[in-house]
Amino acid sequence: MSAWPDGYGLRILETVDSTLNEAARIAPALQGPEWILARFQTAARGRRGRPWSNPRGNLTATLVMRPGGAPEQAALRSFVAALALHDTCVAVTGRAEGLALKWPNDVMLNGGKLAGILLESAGQGGGVSYLAIGIGVNLAEAPPADSVEPGALRPACLLAETGAAVTPDEFLGHLASAYAARETQFTTYSFAPIREAWLARAARLGERIVARTAKSETSGIFRTVDATGNLVLETSKGPAVISAAEVFF
Ligand SMILES: O=C(O)CCCC[C@@H]1SC[C@@H]2NC(=O)N[C@@H]21
User: Fold this and answer.
1) Which of 86, 94, 97, 125 is the most interior residue, by most CB within 10 Å?
2) 64 in ligand 1 pocket by Cβ < 6 Å?
3) Gene3D superfamilies this protein is in (predicted)?
């Protein structure tokens, strides 16, 4: 396993409501970035207020940090984390085949959703007091296919799809060092190389996709992700630049 990265803390909890809640609780006294790994969460949440199923054996972890900089810059770490997750999946399975990234930050395996990321932050006066990157990976078990909304990706599981039996501790060991390497790339060279690497792993680039918000639906050809992380679709009315949406294939 990779060496644990310098400067990153680790706390392991048997049971917690949510590692994102724990991140908010410990953030005020944080000395440096810290990973929180939970064996079990009683109130795990996913994006858009959905519950997140977290059977034992899957990875449920949050990285909490005080990144400084503007909120828009901090938010780009969702791409940093997605790339680090992709790197980790390649490292633990020994192959990149079947792995892809779905905007903004899902990791897909063989067309299903293997992992999700939920960013939460707080701040005042244009600053970020803390950033929490919550990560769930279906290592051992995927939730039932009928538990996701119509049109959403089917849940996929690393063990069933690849035969790789990886424990949450092993996976986090790789993920922590992969994240630290991508974080250094981000802080040194800014978003450009992260964006390029993300696009090289993007699912459905150049194909028609649908971006849905609570108020609207935009169908178009997925052209790129711009320099600020927005999704860019080519539609019949011209380019659509989308900052937040759920993407459907
Ligand atoms: O909806 C998604 O795709 C994001 C899922 C994020 C789940 C993780 S599990 C660890 C952390 N704690 C939570 O309550 N949620 C995130």
Assistant:
1) 86
2) no
3) Bira Bifunctional Protein, Domain 2 (3.30.930.10)
| Domain over 208-248 is classified CATH 2.30.30 | yes
Closest ligand 1 atom, CA of 50? Answer: 1
Nearest to 195 by CA among 73, 83, 71: 83
Both tokens assigned to 19: 């590692």
- Give start-end residues of each CATH 2.30.30 domain in the chain: 208-248
ipTM above 0.90, yes or no: yes
| Closest among 127, 108, 128 to 117, alpha carbons compared | 108
Span 14-56, pLDDT tens digits: 999 999 999 999 999 999 999 999 999 999 999 988 899 888 9
CATH 3.30.930.10 segments of the chain? 9-200
- Across the beta sheet with 9-16, the strand order is 9-16, 34-41, 59-65, 130-137, 112-122, 106-109, 99-102
Q: Is 45 in the pocket of ligand 1 (CB under 6 A)?
A: yes
How far does residue 205's CA lie from ligand 1's centre (Å)? 25
Q: Can you tell me the distance from the alpha carbon of 112 to that of 107, in angstroms, rounded to the nearest whole number?
A: 9
pTM of this structure: 0.96
107-145 tens-digit pLDDT: 999 999 999 999 999 998 789 999 999 999 999 999 988
